[in-house]
Design a protein that fits this description.
The complex is a heterodimer of chains A (117) and B (113). Chain A is mostly beta strands and 117 residues long. Helix content of chain A is 0%, strand content 49%. Classes of the chains: A mainly beta (117), B mainly beta (113). Chains A and B meet through strand 5, strand 9 and strand 10 of A and strand 4 of B.
Chain lengths: 117, 113
């Protein structure tokens, strides 16, 4: 049973560039959430995708955008990169929808380490 | 802001039980207590969750007080590989809840030989 996978593992960009990170959810999951983790901090929620739509968004600027594909995989795009965007970007998958009785546990991938110079 | 309070760090001797406390005095009736851990530079790993009954799985036990205002994660026989940051999170289940996780600073557990 494949877990959550993310690519690439590491990435170096310069200020002003754009980056795309990718995530494949755990088998059977249909919901993908993205988190940003700065060094020494806990992960911060960016947004969540379900049924190819953004369902909820955290306190992040519009430079952060995403997409979910019909196979439930997802991309995170960041435009006009800033030095402060350097972080570990985490993807988590879960079973979404109206799941009052089902498990909604989020399972995380290994993350993508982004360094902006 | 995180709805939980945890000590910033704890030590535990290898082979002994590690008891990690968490305070969540403002928890609501539909909110579950979740525990994750994060080993250096890896993605958070799910450990266990519960609503009001004590829970146990192959990794740990979760003890929730009767008033649900606090809980304790117990690693029965800590090993060096249990050294990690442990996060206690409360989040709602059910219809209309996206279940985003709000992480605090967590507890850094150092297991020593």
């Amino acid at each position: 049973d494949a877990g959550v996978t993310q690519s690439p593992t590491h990435l170096i960009k310069t200020r002003g560039q754009q980056v795309t990170l990718r995530c494949s959810p755990k088998s059977g999951h249909d919901t993908v959430s993205w988190y940003q983790q700065a060094l020494g901090q806990g992960p911060q929620f960016i947004f969540q995708y379900y049924e190819e739509e953004e369902r909820q968004r955290g306190n992040f600027p519009d430079r952060f955008s995403g997409h979910q594909f019909p196979n439930y995989s997802s991309e995170l795009n960041v435009n006009a990169l800033l030095l402060g965007d350097s972080a570990l970007y985490l993807c988590a998958s879960s079973l979404g929808g109206n799941t009052g009785t089902l498990q909604e546990t989020q399972y995380f991938g290994p993350g993508t380490r982004l360094l902006v110079l | 802001d995180a709805k939980t309070t945890q000590p910033p760090s704890m030590d535990c001797a290898e082979g002994r039980a590690a008891n990690l406390p968490c305070n969540h005095s403002t928890i609501s009736g539909n909110e579950y207590v979740y525990w994750y851990r994060q080993i250096h530079s890896q993605g958070p790993q799910y450990i266990i969750h519960g609503l009001k009954n004590n829970e146990t799985n192959e990794m740990a036990s979760l003890i929730i007080t009767e008033d649900r205002k606090s809980s304790t994660l117990i690693l029965p026989h800590a090993t060096l590989r249990d050294t990690a940051v442990y996060y206690c999170i409360v989040r709602p289940h059910g219809s209309g809840n996206t279940g985003k996780l709000i992480f605090g600073q967590g507890t850094t557990l150092q297991v020593k030989p």
